[in-house]
Amino acid sequence: MKTLVEMLKNRCEKDAPKTAFLIKQEGRWQPVSWSYVNDRSEKIAAGLLSLGIKPGNAVSILGNTRLEWTLTDLGVMRAGMISVGIYQTLSREQITYILNDSESKVLFLENKEQFDKIQPQLDQLPSLEKIVIWDGDVDADIVIRLPELIKAGEKALTGKPDLVEKAENAISTDDTALVIYTSGTTGPPKGACLTHKNILAELSATSIIPNEILGDTMMFFLPLSHVGERVAGQFMRISRGITAAYVKDINHILDDIKEIRPTFFGSVPRIFEKAYAKVQSEVENAPPLKRSLFQWAVKTGKAVSRIHQKGGNIPLDLQIRKAIADRLVLSKIRNIFGGRVNYFLSSAAPISVEILEFFHACGMLILEGYGQTEVSCFCTACMPGAYRFGSVGKALPNVELKIADDGEIMVKGDIVFKGYHNQEELTRKTINPEGWIYTGDIGKLDADGFLWITGRKKEIIVTSGGKNVTPSNIESRIMNHPLVEHAMVHGDRRNYLTALISLSHENLIAWAGKNGYNTSDIQALIESEPVKAEVQSAIDYANKELAKFETIKKYVIVPKPFGVETGELTPTMKVRRKEVEKKYIHLLDSLYQ
Q: Which of 52, 279, 491, 519 is the most exposed place for a label (fewest CB within 10 A)?
């Protein structure tokens, strides 16, 4: 198999009548067959070619994760064009930058709201020839509706039945399939070019994960513009023939999970952290008897977990206690995720060992993986028979790892990307002549080949006393508290560490209501002594296992939650440290007076 298009067509031919995707319409989950996927993606490809767009041209996609996103993406590739995903949360200026940098000829977007976002910039987009809208209608010469494009594709195929097939046959394994713009925590986004060969190599490497672990049903809910949902999600599901359901609203994901009952679940750590915090919050407010029962059940589950981690045998008396704990408590926690998930995959940021042990105690193993856009997604992963909590697993098949003299993780293999679009010098700095990529992450390999991430090269804090501190692990511990949505540790060239705390207003209101505090004035609530005491407990918990120079000496709660739209977070929910420090420098300075 040489291209993603060949992989797609094989799947559509082999499983034509089977369910490829599930979409929710009028409250019911409706199946979408592989035959439909084949038909629609071919007509979208033909429609693009009929507009005069050439193979090798870039086509951008701006919208929420939904079936149309996937069909458009597949259609673009079948036409031999380059698919460019754009986060729907980006600003007008950022969208304009990506469209110009990629020289996109066509932009697919979701609705009039997204069109209105970029309309003022149209005169600054010289390469853009056509906009295709999925929902609704827009009165503008540059805009056509998706049904119109499909109809044009049908007409083109009537006259030239092999129109799309010729474009498909001309695709080379080394051609760029996707340009994924990394959100980045500093500077403008960089367009990482991934070839068909890169992505197929990633799918081959991740085939180490057996089908019985993945099961038959998964979910789409992360942005498809991100390498995780696009490569390890969309393309992996196509390659394996796994049904995937599109979640419309991530805020109601737990409701959808109960209906879909997925067999495998991959996500960023924040989803697991929120679920853990919610469970802990409910337990704290439960009657004493229920609280004690819960604590006993989890303690029993953790005892089993720790024996499993060491590869030992579970004593009979512990097996009996675990069965009782499972029936009374732990199975109910599994039901939060539909009751069929035994394995999760977590990546993109560190997750605390406490949360990993909690989920494992409940019968759900979170497997951590590591990678980035520039290596086509994952380069390491823990496996059911080979995992260590806190590590991100071993190198995947046909992937080489090494640690540079300064501790930077380096990766080599066919998964390493082609380079950055329009940035040759940066590409040369990122990939050395031997094909090793500098990841920018700091880590270590243990004697058994497990990789442990210890920090981000650019994010390591050096205090005025010369101590090196990795902030992410400290932040992760602080964020275990239900009220803390985000935390950012600060202290570079300062004589001690401090933290900015961003609270979850949703959890704060729920907590205040349960404890009898006034919820009508959020700001007054944030400034209240009871809330400060809760945050202090989170700081104390984080400090408990840290060296003295790593502990947080002071903190301040920011008035508004960190957000993507307000610039404090990337679309993948990573904190933009420089932006946050710049915005709140007055608060940070006050902590050192």
A: 52
Residue 6's pLDDT is what? 98
The CATH number of residue 533's host domain is 3.30.300.30
> Using an 8 Å Cβ cutoff, are 242 and 263 in contact?
no
Q: What is the mean pLDDT of residues 457-474?
A: 80
Of the candidates 250, 472, 235, 269, the residue with the CA atom closest to the CA atom of residue 367: 269
Has residue 402 got a pLDDT over 90?
A: yes
pLDDT tens-digit map of 18-49: 999 999 998 899 999 999 999 999 999 999 99
216: Cβ–Cβ under 8 A, 6 or more apart, which residues? 242, 243, 263
Neighbours of 553 (CB within 10 A): 15
- Span 516-541, pLDDT tens digits: 888 788 888 988 999 999 999 999 99
Residue 194 falls within a domain, yes or no?
no
Return the C-alpha torsion angle 13, 14, 15, 17, nearest 10.
Answer: 60
**Average of per-residue pLDDT across 272-291:** 87
CA separation (Å) from 518 to 69, 107, 560?
43, 48, 18
- Sign, Cα dihedral of 502, 490, 565, 456: negative
Beta strands at 343-346 and 365-372: parallel, antiparallel or unpaired: parallel
Which helix (H) or strand (E) segment holds residue 16: the answer is none
User: Total structural domains in the chain?
Assistant: 3
% of residues, the chain, pLDDT over 70: 99
Angle at 84 between CA 16 and CA 561, to 5 degrees: 110
Q: pTM of the prediction?
A: 0.85
End-to-end Cα separation, the chain, in angstroms: 63
Angle, in degrees to the nearest 10, between helices 146-159 and 34-50:
80
Nearest to 256 by CA among 331, 330, 337: 337
What are the tokens at 23?
Answer: 């979409």
Closest CA to 445 of 384, 378, 400: 400
Answer yes or no: is pLDDT of 185 > 80: no
User: Is position 197 within any domain?
Assistant: no
Element (H, E) at 262: none
CA atoms within 13 A on the CB side of 117: 20
The confidence band for 278, taking pLDDT boundaries of 50, 70 and 90, is confident
The answer on 230 and 300 residing in a single domain is no
Q: Are residues 161 and 231 located together in one domain of the fold?
A: yes
The closest of 312, 277, 295, 329 to 481, measured between CA atoms, is 277
Q: With 70 as the cut, is the pLDDT of residue 442 above it? A: yes
Which pair of structure tokens corresponds to residue 303? 């005892």
What residues make up the domain containing 277? 268-340+342-456
Percent of the chain with pLDDT over 90: 71
- H, E, C per residue of 335-359: HCCCCCCCEEEECCCCCCHHHHHHH
Averaged pLDDT, 108-128: 94
Q: Looking at the DSSP assignment, which residues form a beta bridge with residue 159?
A: none
